[in-house]
Amino acid sequence: MSSPRDDHEAAAADIRAVEEANTAFYEALERGDLDALSALWLPGEDLTVSCVHPGWPVLSGRGEVLRSYALIMANTEYIQFFLTDVQVAMTGDTALVTCTENILSGGPAQEGDALGPLVGQLVVATNVFRNTPEGWKLWSHHGSPVLTETGEEEDEEPTS
């Protein structure tokens, strides 16, 4: 029988491992490393993975999900993620990570430029991981754009 201290230490180690897997996911995207990214997703098609990129329909199945990342990487010259509000919740062999992706990205450069124009975007993301013999693997990623308000409406006088 394990002691409460042992259980707490094991849970803390699992949370650290999930945080590391989550960070590795974003680092692989930043490097454009499809092989590393592929290794982070659950293998095989028996447990269907899913992904929702902001503004995209649901993608199901490992092949479809990984093709989407290959397409994104092929059309993105530069991308960097600054993660904030990272929260990890766990139950059994499943972990849920929520975070805000503060994204800075640039598309293909214009003629003569080293880099295309940079664009900032906020996305809230949910990443679901499963614990496997090979470590924590992504089961699902869902990103939704954050629609910010300018506050201008609050400053205007009512018209009625």
Automatic annotation (TrEMBL):
Residue intervals of the SnoaL-like domain: 18-146
Source taxon at top rank: Bacteria
Protein name per the record: DUF4440 domain-containing protein
Coiled coil: none
Region Disordered: start-end pairs: 140-160
Acidic residues: bias regions: 150-160
Entry-linked Gene3D superfamilies: 3.10.450.50
Pfam families, sorted: SnoaL_3 (PF13474)
Species this protein is from: Streptomyces nitrosporeus
